[in-house]
Amino acid sequence: MCKLGLIGQNIDASRSPALHRMLGDLCTLPVSYELQIPTDGSPEAFSHKLDEMLAAGFNGTNVTFPYKQIAIARAEEVNDAVKKIGASNTLRIKNGKIFAYNTDYTGFIRGYRSRIGSSPAGKVLLIGAGGVGRAIGFALFELGATELMVSDLNAAGAQSLVDAINVYGFKARYIAPEDIGDAAKQADGLINCTPVGHYTTPGTPLSPEYFGGQSWAFDAVYTPIDTEFLIAANQANLKIVSGFDLFFYQALDAFEIFTDQSVQDVEPVWNRFREQYEVTSSLI
To answer: Where is the Shikimate dehydrogenase substrate binding N-terminal domain positioned along the sequence (predicted)?
Structure first.
């Protein structure tokens, strides 16, 4: 049995257990996947939960809000993506050691290429500089981004991401919220990495009037898949990369890290999961 988990807060509705168990079935590998909710959002509560999982013989765990940055401190080894981003969403446990990865980074790259192909990302406006925003901000430069414009209501958080990207020799700059419309008009790609658009926080962080003239758009929100942000992008004839694309491909990458088994034929998994769990969209 391959014992996997997800450490986070407010994760009761997560579809990760279902997808990882399905991947196990398709690879004829028995998989358990259990939600792990620490008592609070502190580093101590996270470490206590992780210690429990180590003692119980877990092979790995995904990590989500608010522990992605905290998780790094518990890892003996971190890969290059984690070093750049400063956050991990995937911990592999092997021979008592913890290895940290970031499959938001790799999953976005796979999701983008599945929808956009080899076309370069170009000049991109990123709205939201939190954990997933940081991962995607760096991943964009693997996809041919020429410049990243970062906007967030938390100016310090946005500037932190800009500074980190510039340190690595890429080009990034901060965009104040009042200048977001002008930045959108300059962009080839538009990205939402805020919670705005989720069922619980409907809306869009970018007014529909600013969509048009860009090439593509991505929304990290995937409940619903057809967010107001992506609907506006579709109406403006932009190519779409959805939050479900990211969810799906980051899970595949994590499963391969956990199990050392590569999923060669992705389409049957995609179709089976969407059908079984009634994942519907008019855009993808």
So the answer is: 6-91
- The per-residue pLDDT for 177 is 96
CATH, range 105-243 = 3.40.50.720
Same fold, 2-101+245-276 and 105-243: yes
Measured CA to CA, the distance from residue 187 to residue 56 in angstroms comes to 49
**pLDDT over threshold 90, residue 270:** yes
Q: Which residues of 133-157 are buried (b: 16+ CB within 10 A; e: fewer)?
A: bbbbbbbbbebebebbbbbbeeeeb
Q: CATH second-level architecture of 2-101+245-276?
A: 3-Layer(aba) Sandwich (3.40)
Q: Residue 202, preceding bond cis, omega within 30 degrees?
A: no
Each residue of 55-78: pLDDT tens digit? Answer: 999 999 999 989 999 999 999 999
**Residue-level pLDDT at 47:** 98
User: Which pair of structure tokens corresponds to residue 173?
Assistant: 């700059």
Residue 13 predicted with pLDDT over 90: no
Question: H or E stretch including 3?
Answer: strand 2-7
pLDDT recorded at residue 278: 86
Extents of the domains making up the chain: 2-101+245-276, 105-243
Q: Are 43 and 70 in contact (CB under 8 A)?
A: yes
| Catalytic positions | 68
Task: Say how far apart CA 244 and CA 138 lie, in whole Å.
Answer: 20
Question: What ranges in the chain are assigned the alpha helix state H?
Answer: 16-26, 43-55, 80-85, 103-116, 131-139, 155-167, 180-186, 228-235, 243-259, 266-276
